[in-house]
Amino acid sequence: MNVRKHLHVTCAIIEHDGHVLAAQRSAEMSLPLKWEFPGGKIDPGESPEECLRRELMEEMAIAVNVGKKLPASTHQYPKFAVTLHPFLCSIESGEIVLHEHAAITWLPPEELHTLDWAEADLPIIEAYLEAYGAIAR
Ligand SMILES: Nc1nc2c([nH]c(=O)n2[C@H]2C[C@H](O)[C@@H](COP(=O)(O)OP(=O)(O)OP(=O)(O)O)O2)c(=O)[nH]1
Where are the alpha helices (DSSP H) in the chain? Predict the structure, then answer.
């Protein structure tokens, strides 16, 4: 039986002082050690904004302000498809404590490409740089 999995996932492009937060997935997660924007799967009945706030609290113990939406991007991995719903975010409160990720880093937008990103994120980084990269420089 060919059951195709298609996930809808929110992700937060968190900006602070001209830098953007990237998070590294742990060795135990799917797509191990790949870099991503924090977030996660949208639960039934949840808005993408609610999902992001919940995920960031669960994963990093921070409350975020959810701002502008960027275009969604769909990517087919070998075993599943994902549609990423990215939003610009800022930290509202809290100090980051990592509950799931292996590491985080803050990078200027023009250095984001130096990390080994989950493939689905590459078009998002491109769209972000095109639309907002200049603001942070
Ligand atoms: N949060 C997030 N997930 C991403 C990004 N890019 C990308 O391909 N993904 C993928 C990785 C995961 O397969 C999926 C997000 O699911 P998740 O992090 O909530 O859950 P998971 O699959 O690691 O964990 P689980 O189903 O075993 O509970 O989307 C991204 O930028 N952020």
Answer: 48-60, 122-136
Q: What is the pLDDT of residue 13?
A: 98
Query: In this structure, are residues 72 and 86 in contact, taking their beta carbons and an 8 Å threshold?
Result: yes
The predicted model scores a pTM of 0.94
ipTM of the predicted structure? 0.92
Q: Give the chain's domains with CATH numbers.
A: 6-136 (3.90.79.10)
Task: Tell me, in angstroms, the distance from the centre of ligand 1 to residue 108's CA.
Answer: 23
Please choose, from the candidates 112, 118, 22, 14, the residue with its C-alpha nearest in 3D space to the C-alpha of residue 67: 14
Q: Are 59 and 99 in contact (CB under 8 A)?
A: yes
Distance in angstroms (rounded) separating the CA atoms of residues 133 and 129: 4
Q: Which residues have CB under 6 Å of ligand 1? A: 7, 9, 11, 29-31, 36-41, 82, 84, 118, 120-121
Q: Cα of 48 to ligand 1 centre, how many Å?
A: 14
Instruction: Output 136 or 64, whichever has higher pLDDT.
Output: 64
- Rounded to an integer, what distance in angstroms lies between the CA atom of residue 122 and that of residue 126? 6
